[in-house]
Write a structure and sequence with these properties.
This protein is 36% helix and 28% strand. The chain is α/β, with parallel strands linked by helices.
């Protein structure tokens, strides 16, 4: 038995954060070999791991289906209504939430000047709306599910708010970053009830994750 399992159920994100998350769990003494080798299985009860989309982690942790979880700050910002405790910045999976437009004269600034409002496409409507409200600008938010980079190229919007790691996709589509909203990294979150009832196990996990 390790310091964290099977005492805790841990929500683990599939996708870009998976490798870094499993590396951190390995450092705690968990055996994540089966998680790494089986991308179809979702529940690994022997080690207390359940895998899911990053956007679902806070949902499971809030509901108590998982005691703790790891997901990106971008998810937590978009789902700020979730009642979870953010315990630790794990420092990996760094991306930037940015405002981008087509290259050349800034069409979003021109739209604001002429019309008093800009159109912005994003997968993060709450994050975008809060940002423009905070910066005192009017924006019509258009939520998209697919490739957000397409929206300004077709004239649907003047700008996008999106998450980028390297900026390669932006450059390949002749888009440029105009503003940076924040930097997103992986965060450890906990269910408030579990944080009290399973404090020794969660404290041990935190101590292990903070260790150099």
């Amino acid at each position: 038995m390790t310091a964290v399992a099977p005492a805790l159920t841990i929500a683990v994100p599939r996708g870009a954060l998976l490798g870094g998350t499993l590396d951190r769990l390995d450092s705690l003494g968990l055996d994540t070999a089966e998680v790494r080798s089986n991308d179809r299985k979702l529940l690994f009860a022997d080690v207390g791991i359940v895998t899911m989309r990053p956007s679902d982690v806070a949902t499971y942790v809030e509901a108590g289906a998982a005691d703790v979880g790891i997901t990106g700050k971008d998810v937590l910002t978009e789902q700020s209504e979730r009642e979870v405790y953010e315990l630790l910045d794990l420092g990996f999976g760094e991306c930037r939430m940015i405002l981008a437009t087509v290259d050349g004269p800034d069409p979003s600034a021109e739209a604001l000047r002429r019309l008093g409002v800009m159109r912005v496409a994003t997968k993060y409507p709450k994050t975008a709306a809060a940002y423009f409200e905070r910066t005192g600008r009017q924006a019509e938010i258009v939520e998209v599910k697919g490739s957000v980079e397409l929206a300004p190229l077709t004239g649907l919007v003047e700008a996008i708010v999106d998450l980028t790691a390297t900026g390669t996709t932006l450059r390949e589509n002749d888009l440029v970053v105009r503003e940076e909203l924040f930097v997103s990294t992986a965060r450890l979150i906990a269910n408030p009830v579990a944080h009290k009832l399973k404090a020794p196990a969660i404290d041990a996990m935190l101590e292990g994750l903070r260790a150099p």
